[in-house]
Design goal:
Strand content of chain A: under 5%
Order of helices and strands of chain A: HHHH
Oligomer: heterodimer
Shape of chain A: flat
Number of helices of chain A: 4
Distance between the termini of chain B: 75 Å
Distance between the termini of chain A: 56 Å
Number of helices of chain B: 17
Number of strands of chain B: 6
Largest sheet of chain B: 6 strands, parallel
Strand content of chain B: 5-15%
Low-confidence stretches of chain B: 271-283
Mean pLDDT of chain A: 90
């Protein structure tokens, strides 16, 4: 168990550095789509929500199902609205 | 092959899609494909999770997934581009509450005695909760359901201190003591405290500082997902959450730099509410020189280089389409037209860029202050539309000004400056702008959209 947590912390630290490297050079023109696209990615908590709502205990199912609902708004809405915005960025 | 291994291999694949997708979001040419890649990573992660053997009942999952997708679809396709900041805010909030619910579900179903797990649950619920309530308040402020003014009260720091202490105590009880109050009571108390923290965190912040808050809440929603990843020991949540957390923090940092303020100053000072803010700069005012649209047209017609500086006022007046038309007419007339956009113009990072993109302005004529300031002397006419604080010369000249040191677009160095403004009321920071009194400045009073439309019809007629 402890080794698993250490491994996950390892993953966390590397991901943060990767995220910083990825984002630092984004031009300010794209800040809004970047934010809403990143926001959609944060809906990844949907994966956790699905696992919770598949449980056998009623309270967990209720909480998990509510989580699935909100997370899928976040995911679907976030990606669609980003796509819609990016579709408008054109060069002549 | 073992299902668990298979599932994890697919999680690695979706992490790669998120990373490459985010990378491609960094350039306008590839951004749309990047977003598609990232969304296919999400789809992959969700589909593979549904294969999990521990899932007993799929009915609720399917129902909630479909309902949420429908709501998300309609929200995303119906929203007006000018309402984008509040849309991003509310989506953020939904991500936060989802993480909170996941943390809570794990807490009530499990009997964890490992402080590391409980710590992760504590953080998930706390960050998720404050992201949710903070985003709701931000949504209210941006859509002007509640006042966008900074709200300060006496003893604010004291109340915040008490709140943080209470959260700390609940955390200690949750992680180490367990039993001072029951686990259900602990959870409910933690959720309530997290909500209050989020509200108190956003309510003192004024409208003009919203870009910082939105970026920060965005970061929090990622961190909440990340913490949820530690609760369910899931790699993909940690990777994706950390990426979002990092990107939000960088944006927050960029916004703070663009205002020459520290994050602590934005969060705790309630900018513009300080009573002595206006005292210093009210001196040395001259006369304001209004100009009619007809006269402005004559000057514009003779101009060979024009710089347009949009601000939040353009969004409020929905003037972006009229502005684009004016820009095209000026180009047809032989002038070089650029748009200078300050990083914090508007209500979220990149707000102006999105509005101009909506109006079909090519993104390669959008320039940043650093590109345009050195050549400002060569600009014949600068048209400021609904921007105020980001063009305030006090930021570089007046040490007593609250915005002193903030990088601005130095429009006062242009040969002529037109300022489109509804009235002489001061900007969101509540401070006077000496730009309006400069000898090369002319005021175009009235609604931004009407003013620009009049200019457009002068050109056509």
């Amino acid at each position: 168990m402890e080794t698993q947590i250490i491994l996950l912390i390892f993953v966390l630290v590397l991901s943060i550095f990767l995220g910083v490297e990825l984002i630092t050079k984004v031009p300010s023109t794209l800040h809004t789509p970047l934010m809403s696209g990143a926001n959609a990615i944060s809906g990844i908590t949907l994966v956790g929500a699905i696992l919770s709502s598949g449980s056998s205990e009623i309270v967990t199912i209720i909480l998990g199902t509510a989580a699935v609902f909100f997370a899928s708004i976040n995911v679907v809405g976030g990606y669609l609205v980003t796509n819609r915005m990016l579709g408008m960025f054109k060069k002549k | 092959m073992d299902t668990a291994i298979l599932v994890n291999l697919f999680y690695i694949a979706s992490s790669i899609l998120f990373i490459v997708g985010l990378k491609m979001l960094g350039s306008p040419d590839t951004a749309r494909r990047g977003n598609l890649l990232s969304s296919s990573g999400m789809l992959l992660a969700v589909l593979i999770t549904l294969l999990d053997q521990n899932i007993i009942d799929y009915r609720y999952i399917a129902g909630a997934l479909i309902a949420g997708s429908i709501v998300g679809y309609f929200a995303a396709t119906k929203v007006k581009m000018t309402s984008m900041p509040e849309m991003v805010a509310i989506f953020n909030g939904f991500g936060g509450i989802a993480s909170l619910l996941v943390g809570s579900a794990e807490y009530v179903s499990g009997t964890f005695d490992n402080p590391a797990f409980l710590g992760a649950i504590f953080l998930t619920v706390l960050i998720g909760g404050l992201t949710f309530s903070g985003s709701i308040i931000a949504y209210g402020k941006l859509s002007e359901v509640i006042s966008g003014k900074p709200y300060l009260y006496k003893g604010q720091q004291f109340v915040n201190g008490i709140l943080l202490l209470a959260i700390l105590l609940v955390g200690i009880n949750m992680l180490f003591i367990q039993g001072f109050i029951s686990s259900e009571e602990t959870l409910i108390l933690l959720i309530v405290l997290a909500f209050i923290l989020g509200i108190l965190f956003v309510i003192p912040i004024g409208g003009a500082d919203m870009p910082v808050v939105i970026a920060l809440l965005n970061s929090f929603s990622g961190l909440a997902a990340c913490a949820a990843g530690f609760v369910i020991l899931n790699n993909v949540l940690i990777v994706a959450g950390a990426l979002v957390g990092a990107s939000g923090l960088i944006l927050t940092n960029i916004m703070c730099k663009a205002m020459n303020r520290s994050l602590a100053n934005v969060l705790f000072s309630g900018f513009g509410a300080a009573p002595d803010a206006t005292a210093e700069s009210t001196q040395e005012q001259g006369e304001v020189k209004p100009i009619s649209a007809e006269d402005a047209y004559l000057i514009l017609e003779a101009a060979s280089s024009v710089l347009i500086v949009p601000g939040y006022g353009m969004a409020v007046a929905q003037a972006q389409h009229a502005v684009r038309e004016l820009g095209e007419l000026l180009e047809d007339n032989g002038a070089e037209v650029k748009y200078a956009i300050h990083p914090v113009a508007g209500r979220m990072p990149g707000h102006m860029n999105v509005l101009l993109a909506e109006a079909n302005v090519s993104y390669d004529v959008l320039v940043e202050p650093d590109d345009v300031n050195p050549v400002m002397e060569t600009v014949d006419v600068c048209i400021v539309i609904g921007a105020n604080d980001v063009v305030n010369p006090d930021a570089k000249d007046n040490e007593g000004s609250p915005i002193y040191g903030m990088p601005i677009i130095e429009v006062d160095n242009a040969k002529t400056v037109f300022v489109s403004k509804r009235s002489m009321a001061s900007g969101f920071a509540g401070i006077q702008n000496p730009l309006f009194f400069k000898s090369n400045t002319r005021m175009l009073f009235g609604d931004a959209k009407e003013t620009v439309s009049t200019l457009v019809s002068e050109f056509k007629g």
